[in-house]
Amino acid sequence: xxxxxxxxxxxxxxxxxxxxxxxxxxxxxxxxxxxxxxxxxxxxxxxxxxxxxxxxxxxxxxxxxxxxxxxxxxxxxxxxxxxxxxxxxxxxxxxxxxxxxxxxxxxxxxxxxxxxxxxxxxxxxxxxxxxxxxxxxxxxxxxxxxxxxxxxxxxxxxxxxxxxxxxxxxxxxxxxxxxxxxxxxxxxxxxxxxxxxxxxxxxxxxxxxxxxxxxxxxxxxxxxxxxxxxxxxxxxxxxxxxxxxxxxxxxxxxxxxxxxxxxxxxxxxxxxxxxxxxxxxxxxxxxxxxxxxxxxxxxxxxxxxxxxxxxxxxxxxxxxxxxxxxxxxxxxxxxxxxxxxxxxxxxxxxxxxxxxxxxxxxxxxxxxxxxxxxxxxxxxxxxxxxxxxxx
Amino acid sequence: xxxxxxxxxxxxxxxxxxxxxxxxxxxxxxxxxxxxxxxxxxxxxxxxxxxxxxxxxxxxxxxxxxxxxxxxxxxxxxxxxxxxxxxxxxxxxxxxxxxxxxxxxxxxxxxxxxxxxxxxxxxxxxxxxxxxxxxxxxxxxxxxxxxxxxxxxxxxxxxxxxxxxxxxxxxxxxxxxxxxxxxxxxxxxxxxxxxxxxxxxxxxxxxxxxxxxxxxxxxxxxxxxxxxxxxxxxxxxxxxxxxxxxxxxxxxxxxxxxxxxxxxxxxxxxxxxxxxxxxxxxxxxxxxxxxxxxxxxxxxxxxxxxxxxxxxxxxxxxxxxxxxxxxxxxxxxxxx
Lengths: 391, 336
Hints:
The complex is a heterodimer.
Chain A: E1 2-7, E2 10-15, H1 16-46, H2 51-60, H3 62-78, H4 82-103, H5 107-134, H6 141-169, H7 174-195, H8 209-214, H9 219-233, H10 238-248, H11 258-281, H12 283-302, H13 307-329, H14 338-367, H15 369-390
Antiparallel strand pairs in A: 1-2
Chain B: H1 25-50, E1 68-73, E2 76-81, E3 90-95, E4 98-102, E5 105-112, E6 118-124, E7 130-136, E8 139-145, E9 151-158, H2 163-166, E10 169-176, E11 181-183, E12 191-193, E13 196-198, E14 204-210, E15 216-223, E16 226-233, E17 238-244, E18 247-251, E19 257-265, E20 268-275, E21 280-283, E22 295-298, E23 301-306, E24 309-314, E25 322-325, E26 329-332
Parallel strand pairs in B: 12-17
Antiparallel strand pairs in B: 1-2, 1-26, 2-3, 4-5, 5-6, 6-7, 8-9, 9-10, 10-11, 12-13, 14-15, 15-16, 16-17, 18-19, 19-20, 20-21, 22-23, 23-24, 24-25
């Protein structure tokens, strides 16, 4: 069963399961970005909380999320129920939208709800990507992930608009935004249940925690994990990029919120073409090329600081790396352990990025942004070169 | 639909979609359509019920009416009698996330979420009619107007949604309402720290309070993980640090004391008063962690938001904190 999308001269077939997973992500991202768009204002404006207080709570839950992601990956493999585990993740995040209502103005409860929401996201990512990778022939993985990520980004761009529409229609009722977001998320869960298929097979005998960790004994997969973590360590987190763009080059305050939208728009446009390019010329090449684009972006940022080129390079980085990495790793993992493997890879990358974010904060403070950014760019180039030789 | 049950680690080259459809096409479509309709109906019903009736603004509302305490109630500029702050508030016609009023000038910070979220610093006259606006971005944090009503200053948080990632950044602006000249981010002000000119990429300013001459002001500067109280000169455009660990200062009407929040543990602040003549510091009786820039009720008493309510405490550290008005924030007294 295929749905045809006309792409250029060639008509590329996208398997229905990819479109279904893309639709689930699109709808879910509308729901979660609705919350992201209004949460800071809700906390500060409506509840009168301090963001500093909230930020501290936020960081504490990171470790829990990482563990849940690994456990979820393992459970999905052990019972070969990727769809079920992904569904639990989507469902948990959906329920959290109502949890925001229930938490009221209690800081610990709000922190817990946000953490549960993140946990849901952590839980669903690996089984979802495993499902994508199991739904297409290996030769088309890059393009399939590209389609999924593009649909996901459409949702992310629509979310704030939806939140705004609800707030306007209800004269600023944040609770109505939460309830609407819940309903949208519930629709996402329903789409998953109805339209996403999973492979149901006799349970594989050898699936255990040991066999999941044993994936790292495979040289090629271990190298992918190491490369992803190493590159994650020299990737500067987005807020820093936007702050630096603003500082150096006088982006007027009211245009500041447009910067992430610029990255997202480029990501949306390039996700499919770069995914398909990866299928044709090699995924490792495109993945590393994306990091080179990011290093170039840092250099433009330090040097002339042209706004549009920085955003284009930043968006191209995401388009060339996020889904492509999953397409690199997928075929290296046996189907019955694929979710565990992807969870391992994603967790390693997330931990590296967390460490990088803290490290860059220190670099920025001690040596200033230009030197810090130069060091990160140099790190990216060195890591990419090493990766090119090892992968 | 192809079914391929071959499990293999190596690239499966030919047959894709080793997945099976959950159920038949028409049944799924019917379930989806019905559930979508139900969810839309549910969300719409909730939204209609949640839509708060817009409170009717009192047309005689005037921010200079003597004997009244201005505060934010239900998201709107409102006032209560000073003699009985617990009385039901009179509602004015402006919606603000933070505001401050002095001598007929109101500075109102308001954020509007959207595809392109907008934040404004609005200047309002005594009848809350808009006389000017400055486009900002971020989350409204502090608003202050000098006692004469001439100088206005605001702080917004610029963090995006990932607060723990980027370290936070603040933008503090100052507007001279007489000349119309505004500075949207004061972080280029030359700063002297412990007698030496200080340079760092990471300086952030927040929480400005003006002296009676409309020129001298106090604020917080944050850099390299520490905060300092600064004294600054608007005309000469320079600042110097006075002491460490003091945020969101607020100068008493007689100019003798500053009350600020002092960090006493990573997640806790305590209000302290600083006598500017002796530079002696006194903790206030309020023991709860307060994250607000206090306002002065009179020369001896400060007001601040605690939880969802407005509280007051004596500035000399004596007595005990008392609730001033429930469900309120952003206090100010209109009279000079």
